[in-house]
Amino acid sequence: LELEETPLELGGEQGRWEEERLRTAALSFGAKRERELGVRQEQERYQLILEEEEMIDFVSTAITMKGTLSEKSHPPLSADLKKQSIQEVRRSLPIFPFREDLLRAITQHQILVIEGETGSGKTTQIPQYLMEDVSLKLLLIRSGLPRRVAAMSVAARVAEETGVKLGNEVGYSIRFEDCTSERTVLKYMTDGMLLREFLTEPDLASYSVVIIDEAHERTLHTDILFGLIKDIARFRSDLKVLVASATLDTERFSCFFDDAPVFRIPGRRFPVDIFYTKAPEADYLEACVVSVLQIHVTQAPGDCLVFLTGQEEIEACCEMLQERCRRLGSKIAELVVLPIYANLPSDMQAKIFSPTPPGARKVVVATNIAETSLTIDGIIYVIDPGFCKQKSYNARTGMESLIVTPCSRASANQRAGRAGRVAAGKCFRLYTAWAFKHEMEETTIPEIQRTNLGNVVLLLKSLGINDLIHFDFMDPPPHETLVLALEQLYALGALNHLGELTKMGRRMAELPVDPMLSKMILASEQYKCSEEVLTIAAMLSVNNSIFYRPKDKVVHADNARMNFTVPGGDHLVLLNVYNQWVESGFSTQWCYENFIQFRSMRRARDVRDQLEGLMERIEVEVVSSLEDSVPIRKAITAGYFYHTARLSKGGYKTVKHQQTVYVHPNSSLFEEQPRWLIYHELVFTTKEFMRQVIEIDSGWLLEVAPHYYKSKELEDSSSKKMPRKQGKTKDELG
Ligand code: CDP
Ligand code: MG
């Protein structure tokens, strides 16, 4: 990891460049060795001793460097900053001097676009100004944010600032979690939840102000909200619409909302020095860990923010950091390592905002949620590997996958900007200056153009919007994506051949989950296994974070995981885990002993309770299939028949499009390799992996999706060799 300094214009301010070279060869060598040795478990003792020595070497190099660096480094953060009272902090935000002007502008205009640097106070302050202003006679304010964590943490912050209990006047509502009451005036919610509000209240009659926050994120839901809200604003002149955005693309928002005025909050920003690596990094996770430790031992006080792509990576990085700090012990100052990602439970989130203890350094390891949605005070150093996880959608094959891709230059600059909020900062980019200029896109493509639209089309259809081709999109989705969404909904039985919503479709739209998952749940009625399918749906929605695999107990963890294996596939393993946990009396201890993440299980239970609550509304009786896994697997097939793969030479091929895919090594069917599989999702890492798979009988496909599959397609020489299974299916078909 070698760093190169290249001047770069950032936010109009010329970066300041220091003569500085972070020496890292020793450390990265140590890290590489460690990884090589890590595989060879029989040499564990030797490995520990060696690492210890290497680490000591590194620390002594670093301390000498610290001496030479100190006079150039930035002054320590003012301790007073941390001691300011809440009201003082509020008054110190960039938005505060514009309070009166802003309120006037809101009174004068129905739709207002508000632009301001991240952290200027848009999300937390604007609704409070509105609440404090008696002349505005507010009914309800809804603020739609693209992320769960942001909605929760912001609501908590605002409740604190206004001195009310969270859930009373100020609350939040996110999928599967509602923290509001009769008294709630200000409700922070995800953009997806705001969208669902249209189902119960198509003209948003009980709202007086709607804020579309983080508009620049251009999530699918935000884009749809734009169209819907623009439409209702025309006949609800009393509704105020505020579109809040970071300093990106605001002209386009104004233009879309019939030239709505833009209110600009001037930003305050300190210069940020940007460093690039000289050569590309082979392992950016490792490079992050190394960089954090370097900053920690060589740089002046100030907290550090690392951008990674997702929960698994973040957890791995935190573990690696903690592990190395443990080994270094008292040789280094305390390093407080904190993760933050969308599914992190709320009790854990609060920690990232708590002040860093004196003498320690905080390092927050985040997804791009910290790019614009969350502001953590005191960040001076940013480490940016330059990647993000993006949904990508192939409209030809209908395959959606999450891919780790280089982020855009706009993102990279937002990330760097996070270092310069409280003082001059530094941003370490773990890629080359060349890559920044030539390999990164200028801006991120809006989600609507790279995702499956099934969910949104179903929702729009149930709002009575039939002509989707002429819907007022800010950036229309590709035509073939829309067509494919309609086809898929037709195949799922949600739309009839005229493209109208069926009774099934209406029931599917009631569930706040993807169409395939809601179809699976609805199909469980017919197969009399709703009890089990609800559990599976809940477990699937907690996102692959059930099993815990600490680095120092890999063997134990893997054994524990093996013990849950049941025939049939991963969905059934998840069911088994959940059922055993129920038997243990939802025990924390049980989770601990079995290497199961308690937090994930608790969330799965919440999700399950919520879904079960909705069953009555869509008239599905909750019954159990008892020990029989066939009905359960059929219900899954009824929802996910699109995701069928067949074993062929050299791997699996998807049935409809002949794409080559592989069973994920974590799967319980990794070694078994059954002939027919249904997968829950595809992830692309080194290749296209199917995550969460079950074995099915090809005959079921004809049973659950007769208008999608033709028996000829499902024939192959090998299936004829399996008369037992074929026969069984026919019996069941009766
Ligand atoms: O929306 P915008 O990016 O303009 O700013 P904001 O999210 O309203 O943040 C304004 C201030 O509130 C920042 O200084 C944050 O650090 C602080 N804040 C906080 O302390 N805790 C939160 N959960 C959210 C914001
Ligand atoms: Mg904000």
From TrEMBL:
Entry superkingdom: Eukaryota
Quickly give the catalysed reaction.
ATP + H2O = ADP + phosphate + H(+)
One GO BP on record is: mRNA splicing, via spliceosome
Assigned keywords, A-Z: ATP-binding, Coiled coil, Helicase, Hydrolase, mRNA processing, mRNA splicing, Nucleotide-binding, Spliceosome
EC numbers listed for it are 3.6.4.13
Region of interest: Disordered? 712-734
Q: Name one GO molecular function term.
A: RNA binding
Q: Which GO terms describe its cellular component?
A: catalytic step 2 spliceosome
Domain (Helicase ATP-binding): residue spans on this chain: 103-266
Q: Which residues form the Helicase C-terminal domain?
A: 291-464
**Name of the protein this chain belongs to:** RNA helicase
Task: State the species of origin.
Answer: Neogobius melanostomus (round goby)
